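Section 5.1 Outputs to date
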Amino acid sequence: MRLPLRRIVQLVQVLLLMACAGLAAAQGVWPTRPVRWIVPYPAGGTTDIIARHVATRVGSLLGQNIVVENRGGAGGTIGAAAAKQSAPDGYTFLVGAPADQVNAPILSKVSYDPAQDFVAVGCMMRGANVLVTNPQLPATDVKSLLALARAQPGRLNYGSAGNGNTSHLSGELLKHLTGVFLVHIPYRGNGPAITDTIGGQVQMMFSNPISVQQHIRSGALRAIAVTASTRLAALPEVPTFKEAGLPLEVYAWMCLMAPTGTPDAVTARMAVALTSALQDGEVIRALEASGSEVFRTTPQEAAAFITAERTKWGELIRSRKITAD
């Protein structure tokens, strides 16, 4: 029996509605309870503050709370290990950064393989470093600083927030690109390194801009160059290393990771929510206030970016025989 055209159209409409309802129901299965984001660094730091801003917005988009859990210690590896050991059910994610996803696994033995145990969901921010010096150092730009370092090999030193930190590796990359001999002085955190640079115990250091911006404004530190591809909105008067002819580009970054085995549908929905959250004005302002910039990616772009970071820094660490001690 042949059905009238009108009846066929009605059946098609019903089938489409059923399909849409089924899709909506499937999407609504997750999340049915709060989702945990592990931040593998202490509360109150830049990573923690940014993660909480983003998580609040993501949670509102998903209709569930995102609970930020700080699991600091050992350069981020304790929190990363905890995330790896969690069930891949979509209720635990890791806010990954260079230390736990790139540097620490190369520099030391850790209980996880970042390339095998996690999948990238998407990135959220990146922030360049700024090279600052004690103002008593007779160098005002990259050219004069390198000339001074070459004239006094081994006499100049630079502080960092610790071995394997981006502040350390920025200095190693500068040495690698220029051949200058600078002595590395690692500290237990950014704060003590800044204090000693101001005091003259060390001559220079790479730092995130937000931590030293007030000291640059007051004249306690002199800004030499930033490690971004373009000048920073927070320090528009400070040139890039690229302007000085050096391909020195370094970023601290944050990307959301999921334990391997997390359902694709879950990571895809989280990726959509993350991308939407990073277009929120309040989130953007919070990132800019930290001296960083929004870094929106697809999961595929995030995976490619992190792979490139592992290759870049792995080659540098191995070629310069950098250790965690």
